Amino acid sequence: MRLPVLVFDIETLTDLKSGAHLYGLDLPEGDLEQALTKLRRQESGSDFQRLPLHEIVCISGLWVDEKAEMKLFSFSREHNSEAEILQKFFSIFQKRNPTLVSWNGSQFDLPVILFRAMYHGLSAPSLFDQGEIDSQKRYNNYQNRYHHRHIDLMDIMAMFNGRNFQKLDDIAHLLGYPGKRGPASYLIPEYVRNQQWLEMTSYCEGDVLNTWLVYLRFLLLKGQILPEDHRLWIQATIHYLQGQPQQKEFLQVWQTTSKQTDFTASDFETIQPPDIQY
Questions:
Q1: pLDDT tens, 211-248?
Q2: pTM of the entire structure?
Q3: Whose CA, among 67, 168, 253, 275, lies 20 to 30 Å from 38?
Q4: Alpha helices, DSSP H only, in the chain?
């Protein structure tokens, strides 16, 4: 495993102001969202909005450093504008060049971040440089799907074939991890509308944690970590989350779902403080 690692995920809403500008609509806010949804259905047959119209309301991440220390964090609209959320995220790359890990990050998260950064007139060469500034990034940058600086697990595990794409929720649950908790519907608009910031960040962080756990299993598959290393990383993750009150439910669900596969059945039997040496 190439450390440090940053596993990340974003949550978004439809940017009604930009949508109204793009389509030349002059409607009350309540009608505007319905109109944009109808237009999108006519364009694509889907409610899923164009990427540039996804306004970022939260970016969550799990940072794992060279000492195997973990830090789960979220930048959200509770305290920051969209531009400030992006600036905080970009500042990570100004200081370090982590291995970036995502689920569908190459087709959704990073393109949305790119469009929204341009919308706000932000600069992020540490993330988007492809060798024009740092010549080494010509051969290993965050945009190229076949490079290893950004590992989009959905893309890689599908062997870069869109017909094989799977949902993070399904794969995590299949492997003995929590997947989504609670209702199946997408609750981010409701969380923002009701200012339920803790629920929103916990939701986003849950996707980050599921991605991290799938990533560990993928590294084991590839032989990049040994079975004993995998066990220690799982123990370290559980130990860390025991000190994170907002992820109490994630741990409880994980303890239940881990019993569903032989490989994960012993994950919670003996939790010891981690002793990972690198």
A1: 999 999 999 999 999 999 999 999 999 999 999 999 99
A2: 0.94
A3: 168
A4: 16-23, 29-44, 82-95, 110-119, 125-128, 153-157, 168-174, 188-193, 197-222, 227-241, 248-257
